[in-house]
Structures are given as C-alpha cells and as structure tokens.
TrEMBL record:
One protein family per Pfam: HTH_OrfB_IS605
Residues in Cas12f1-like TNB domain copies: 314-380
GO BP annotations, alphabetical order: DNA recombination; transposition
InterPro entries tied to this protein: Cas12f1-like_TNB (IPR010095), RNA-guided_DNA_endo/Transpos (IPR051399), Transposase (IPR001959), Transposase_put_HTH (IPR021027)
Keyword entries, A-Z: DNA recombination, DNA-binding, Metal-binding, Transposition, Zinc
Similarity comment: In the N-terminal section; belongs to the transposase 2 family. In the C-terminal section; belongs to the transposase 35 family.
Coiled coil spans: none
Organism: Planomonospora sphaerica
Superkingdom of origin: Bacteria
Name of the protein this chain belongs to: Transposase
Span of domain Probable transposase IS891/IS1136/IS1341: 181-287
Phylogenetic placement of the source organism: Bacteria, Bacillati, Actinomycetota, Actinomycetes, Streptosporangiales
The keyword Zinc is annotated on this UniProt entry: yes
Domain Transposase putative helix-turn-helix: 1-43
GO molecular function: DNA binding; metal ion binding
Length: 394
C-alpha cells in the first residue's frame, strides 16, 4: 500500500531563503506556462500540451542561468504536470456539466508546494546516513536540510515534496510498498454517527468528544482579523497581520488533524467492522439560499451550523479513518445517510417527529426512547451489516 509521511524541516536562514526562491521560481514557471497556453489558444487556436512545454524547459533553463537553471529539471516537469492536471480537471468538469473553474494564475499565497517525482533525481532522502542522530534531505539548489523525523519511515520513498505552511516548512514523502500492520481481530462491529455535540457516537453508546478547536480560539482570531482589517494593503504591517491570522488557522488545522488521528485509531483498535454514513460535507455546508437583497430565512442559523460542522472536521476524520482501517485490515462500510436519525431502532417507524431535540429520540409509534445519536448509530450499523451480507451472498 502507499502512504505519506510528513515531517517538519529545520532549515537555516540561508536555506529558508533558497527554499523561498525555489518556490517563487516554480510559481513563475507555472504562471508562464498557463499564459503560454492561454495566448496560443486565443491568438492561434492552438492547444498546448504538457509535452510541448516540457520540451521547452531546456531552452528556458539555458536562457536563465542562476534562475530557473538552479533547480531540478524533474521538479520543474512536475510543476508543468500540475498545470496539465488542472486543465484535465477543467475539461472533465465541462463535460460533466458542472461549474468549470478555468485554471487561474497562482499568487504567492496560493502556491506552496514543490515536488520531486523521484528520490535521487534532484533530491535525496536521508542524505547523510553517517549522522545517526539526525536526518537530512538534500534538495538541489538548497543543500542538506535537517529534518525533524519524529517517527520511522516505512516502505520505499517514491516522491518528495516540500511545502510551506505559514512560516514553517515541511517535507512530505510518498512511499510505496508500505507493509500493512494488521491488528488482532476483536470480533466486534460498530456503527458510528458523526455529530457536533460529540464527534463520534457508536452504536454501543460510546461518545468521542468534539474539542471545537476553532471555537476555543474564536476571540483571538477575531482580534487578529480586526487588526488585519485596519492595516493598509501592501504594507509590511499588513503582511505581519496576515501571518498572525494564518498561524492561528494553521494551529487549528493541526489540532483538528491530531484529534482525528486519535479518534480514528481508537475505533480501529476496538472494532473489526466499522459502518459510517456516506456524508457529502461540501453539500451539507453550503450557504443558505437567498440574495443580498432577499437573504432568505434562517441564514444566520445555517451559517452557525456550517461553522460547527467544519470545526468538527467530519471530512478529515473520515479520510483518516479510511486509511487507518485499510492499514489495520479492518472493514469500513459507508451507507446512505437518509432517515438514519428519524428511524426507530426498535420498530422501524420513520417520522420527523421521532427526533424531539438534538439529543432526545422518542418513537411516536412504539414509544421507544433513546439518545438520538445512539439510535442513529444502531440504524447505521444494521444497514451496513445488511449490505455486507448481501455482497457476500452475491
């Protein structure tokens, strides 16, 4: 199986400047390639492909010594492939009738990653093995950069990426042939219901809390955003204010991901079969309908609900749960979420009135009372096991 590993880089001041220059040159290459495609089609009705632009790289590098010539040829090809993938996705959306979203030029804040497609081609992981207490990654044009490797890397390193997040730099390794670490069987199965009050509620009545990381720093974030609003565009103080806001959001993102890992690991250790709802978080968190002149009803409430759902991080949690279950040899089943919270787990009666409040469930047909999330988790488990039996019988 394939797996990614992410580690914090510890560059010197000179290496950080070189990494910034590398990122900027790759951004300019991306924008120039995009302009090339746009101009050729607009002026001559000619479609430029990746192969055409990759062939031009040799001339671009020879014409810019000390600039584009400093960096790995393979990493520049990866940047051109990134643009090609953006165009491929654009045409797929056009064919599917969705909002196309034509590829855009990248500003400094929208281009934060450079990729080397092969270990040993312009980059080298663990480049100084004679230092047993430290790990280094060698990047062409930058040098040997120290890595804070907090856990061992397994498998064969295939690609290496460097990513900037705020003032921090990270190296991301994509590894093939990572051995699966199957956990001993427990013989247990569980349905899980995702919520806002509790991130996860199991069919057995267990609850995993929702720390609400964004809400915890809401006051600090509001102060930082107000301070940002007062700064003049283009000023040095505004750049510092932007960095403060970005740092707060980055901290929340790291906390949310860390909690998702711990919650998913707890479930994977306890259950052989885990059933969850196939939630479409992007659809669930769309803004309430309306216009500026006629904003509609419940806009404020919907905005608050969207914020709570995104703060809980359902999408992040399900992504982490999926790969942890695969690595541990557990079975993960996704079921249709329709009516799982309105169906009585005792008699099967479906009615909107069964759900009294966020936490209370009482069936209007048989009188069964339970915690609403536990009742939903039981329905999810039953649906998932039925799908599993049907698939095994087919």
């Amino acid at each position: 199986m394939r797996r990614s590993w992410k580690f914090l880089l510890r560059p010197t001041a000179r290496q950080a400047a070189a990494l910034t220059a590398c990122l900027e040159d790759h951004r300019q290459l991306y924008n120039a390639a995009l302009e090339h495609r746009r101009t050729a089609y607009a002026k001559a009705d000619v479609s430029i492909r990746y192969g055409d632009q990759s062939a031009d790289l040799k001339h671009i590098r020879s014409g810019d010594p000390g600039g584009q010539d400093r960096w790995s040829f393979s990493s520049q090809q990866a940047t051109l492939r990134r643009l090609d993938k953006a165009f491929a996705a654009f045409f797929e959306r056009v064919k599917a009738g969705r909002t196309p979203g034509f590829p855009r030029f990248k500003g400094r804040s929208r281009f934060g990653t450079v990729t080397w497609p092969k270990d040993g081609d312009g980059c080298r992981w663990d480049s100084q093995p004679e230092h047993p207490a430290a790990t280094y990654v060698r990047l062409q044009g930058v040098g040997h950069v120290r890595v804070h490797r907090h856990r061992p890397v397994k498998g064969r390193v295939k690609t290496i990426s460097v990513k900037r997040e705020g003032s921090r730099w990270y190296v991301i390794l994509s590894c093939d042939e990572v051995p699966a670490q199957s956990l001993p069987a427990t013989g247990a199965a569980a349905g899980i219901d995702l919520g806002v009050a509790s991130l996860v509620t199991t069919s057995g009545g267990g609850h995993l809390g929702n720390p609400r990381h964004l809400a915890a720093i809401a006051d600090r974030l509001a102060d930082a955003q107000r301070d940002l609003a007062r700064k003049q565009r283009g000023s040095k103080r505004r750049r510092k204010a932007v960095a403060r806001v970005a740092a707060l959001h980055a901290k929340v993102r790291r906390q949310r991901l860390d909690h998702a890992h711990k919650a998913a690991l707890a479930l994977v250790r306890d259950y052989d079969v885990i059933v969850h709802e196939a939630l479409k978080v992007a659809n669930m968190t769309r803004s309430a309908s309306g216009t500026l002149d006629a904003p509609g009803r419940g806009v404020a409430a919907k905005s608050g609900l969207n914020r709570s759902i995104l703060d809980a991080g359902w999408g992040v949690f399900l992504t982490v749960l999926a790969y942890k279950a695969e690595s541990a040899g557990r079975e993960l089943i996704a079921v249709e979420p329709r009516n799982t919270s309105r169906t009585c787990a005792e008699c099967g009666h479906v009615a909107k009135e069964n759900r009294l409040t966020q936490a209370a469930f009482r069936c209007t047909a048989c009188g069964h009372a339970a915690h609403a999330d536990v009742n939903a988790a039981i329905n999810i488990l039953r649906t998932g096991l039925a799908l599993r039996e049907a698939a095994q019988a087919a």
